[in-house]
Amino acid sequence: MAILIETKTQPKEEEPRVVLDPKEIIINDLKDQIRNIEKSVNLRDSRYMTRALRSLITIRKKLSDDILTSIISYLNPNSKETIDTFIGNDDMEVDALLSDSIKINKIKGNVIPEIHIYTHLLVLLHLIDNKDFKKGKCCADNMMEKLISQNRRTLDLLAAKCYFYYARIYELNNQADQIRRFLLARFRTCTLRKDNDGLAVLINLILRNYLLYKLYNQADIFAAKTNFPETANNNEWARYYYYIGHIKAIHLEYSVAQKNLLQASRKGPQLLAIGFKQAINKLAIVVQLLLGEIPERNLFKDPSLKKSLLPYFQLTQAVRLGDIEFFSNVLQKYESKFLADSTYTLIIRLRRNVLKTGIKKINCAYSRVSLPDIAAKLNLKTAKNSVGDCEYILAKAIRDKVIEASVQHNDNGKEKTGGVYLVNGKYAALGDQAGKEAMDRKDYFNDTYGTLGEGAEEEPCKIFHERINFCLDIHERCVKSLRYPPKNYDDNETNEGRREKEQMDIEIAKQLAETDDDDFF
After folding, report:
1. Is the pLDDT of residue 341 over 60?
2. Three-class DSSP labels, 16-62
3. What is the extent of the structural domain holding 436?
4. Residue 420: what are its φ and ψ, rounded to 5°?
5. Total number of domains in the chain
6. The pTM is what?
């Protein structure tokens, strides 16, 4: 008999896991990015440089003085002056970082310029995050001096990123006007070198600089004389469309501005960059209101936009209701917010739209109303000559065909107000006596809600006629493009019979050609 013997497998001893220091992990990541930059320069492949620049987003959040000190010392052992100037560590701290606890081997050979500029960019990002703008400005100037002294095509991608943060640190110091000439000079240099990456960034920086100081004419001229590179990435395209939309809105080209802002929202990041998304929607709402449209309510319910768009939601309500008092209160309450968003100039123009909406409602509700009553309903009591202002506003609204009405002056002098009335256009055509009788009988109610007045249906008929012509044109083109088979063969006919017929047709064609030649000669 076979005896079964149970054997117990002894569990293997787990190997102890090596827990790395978080600082050492970040330093190793930075070393990997430095190797990617070296590969990009040696292999002339920009993909490695792009990979190193993309990692800036994650590495930036983990940077510290100790990590930057160790990386700078790793690249250049004789860099204590640079460390003390920009990072501010003491000699004792630098020596402690280079101890055996963090094993850092010095880099062999000479360091290429791309790596030097990359480390300057890391230090600049760290200073911006720590809000040390004065040291950041010194670091940015030092970085730009080294960048300008080099003329290497492998620096193009890195230089574009440096231009952006160089302009950013000057903007944070409220000294953006000092670098305008520098940006224009670099723009000319990048144009001559055909550096599309640098061109895209510099065009956006110059437009932003102009808009920051409200130089809208210069910005419009610069945008008209430059061609944005088509090979630019989507983020730069989104910024460019946003700036162009802002410029066009200031110059009263609201439809063009709306198209550019729509393109900016589509090109921009959908999940990240919430601040940029908020800025686009703020400007787009104001432009949409200036066009006479009301934004959708779902836009204001978005969790990422709800809080920032609250002033613009109240502004939209004021325009929709046509309440000039509510509009003035919103404008006064959120004036600082609108100024910070650079939309205050455009929002002031909405006063005319609010008045138009109020006049439309009054014209629909009343067939005949005096100007003081209109001034009271539009809250124009604060003006010294409210009746005169109201008459001017009504005359302009009638001229712009906002309402179909007329302003009538009665010279009998019985009314204290001078006898000036706004009469609905439908009853003005009936004459005074007939109009009064119609108003007394309240026939205007049936006329308003039963049938449309004369000329009211002309525009829909024109649009309907255009659509019919468009459909008929498409049908005619489709019929012309139809193709029919050249010959319907019988199913019972064999292939040999078909070949004989085709041969006979060819012979007949030859005979006809010969007779034609004889007739010609």
Report:
1. yes
2. CCCCCCHHHHHHHHHHHHHHHHHHHHHHCCHHHHHHHHHCHHHHHCC
3. 366-450
4. -110, 125
5. 2
6. 0.70
